[in-house]
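Comment on the following before class.
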Amino acid sequence: MTEITEVVEELVSPIVTDLNLELVEVEFVKEGSDWFLRVYIDTLAGAEPIDIDQCALVSERLSEELDRTDPIAQNYFLEVSSPGAERPLKKEEDFINAVGQFVFIKTYAPIEGMKEFEGYLLQYGPDGAEVEVRIKTRKLVVLIEQNKIALARLAIDFSA
């Protein structure tokens, strides 16, 4: 399904750019018997919350482009929304903007015996993400190399 998401990204990118918005993610997933095309947008650098009118405008314009180009064979539901509080971190800029925030990172292979890390992103650079995690009563700083990150997103710190 990555071909579909790539095509949709190409169609929606000029729309969000024109509206001074940011494309966060596109996913095409099957849930039960239904297919969903989900497009997540945000204001530039998440400066202000995205509102429903902006989502509706992107949805209308994208829907017109999808009707015109017809890149998806099966029936699907189009959803355009905010990425929410647990926004995914995909691009380098996403990680840089998330420095100082609480994050969740899952790795392809264990690092120090763990594959899932929740903690504060201390810094991000060419070496990877440096995260301060809490293990029971102690804090540990872990460096997670970029090529080992399978999934990363903002998270909510319930211990604070």
